[in-house]
UniProtKB/TrEMBL annotation:
GO cellular component, one term: plasma membrane
Pfam families reported in the protein's UniProt record: CRCB (PF02537)
Protein's name according to its UniProt entry: Fluoride-specific ion channel FluC
Reactions mediated catalytically: fluoride(in) = fluoride(out)
Gene name as annotated: crcB
Keywords linked to the UniProt accession: Cell inner membrane, Cell membrane, Ion channel, Ion transport, Membrane, Metal-binding, Sodium, Transmembrane, Transmembrane helix, Transport
Membrane topology type: Multi-pass membrane protein
UniProt-listed GO biological process terms: cellular detoxification of fluoride
Predominant subcellular localization, coarse grouping: membrane
Gene Ontology MF term list: fluoride channel activity; metal ion binding
Function: Fluoride-specific ion channel. Important for reducing fluoride concentration in the cell, thus reducing its toxicity.
Subcellular location field: Cell membrane
HAMAP family for the chain: FluC
Membrane spanning stretches: 31-52, 64-86, 98-119
């Protein structure tokens, strides 16, 4: 039950942060889904940084991982929203935007993970 507490508490914080990011970037997101892009790249970077920090230790902190990794960052990142954004852009006939958005998310998130792991090495 304690593990569920850490995940749920972190998830609530991550969901509020995700909502806040969307509200903060609402005007930019009318042009292009920047909020989701920024959340996915930032979330990927932070999750990789947390992973590298936790699992390079002899005894990783399980509660910290559940709270931050599974809870906060799990709720903060929005890959499902990303997928919907790509499909909606394509359905609107914005095929170039849909392809650009998908590529920026994929390569940006992978680059963020590599950068975080490099910084921790």
């Amino acid at each position: 039950m304690t593990n569920l507490f850490w995940v749920a508490t972190g998830g609530a914080i991550g969901a509020m942060a995700r909502y806040g990011m969307g509200m903060w970037l609402i005007n930019l997101s009318k042009i292009f889904p920047f909020a989701t892009l920024i959340v996915n790249i930032t979330g990927s970077f932070l999750l990789a940084l947390l992973f590298a920090t936790q699992y390079q230790q002899a005894e990783p902190n399980q509660q910290l991982w559940l709270f931050l990794g599974v809870g906060v960052l799990g709720a903060f990142t929005t890959f499902s929203t990303f997928s919907l954004d790509v499909v909606l852009l394509a359905q609107q006939g914005d095929y170039i935007k849909a392809l650009l958005y998908a590529c920026l998310n994929a390569f940006g998130c992978i680059a963020a993970v590599l950068l975080a792991l490099w910084l921790k090495s």
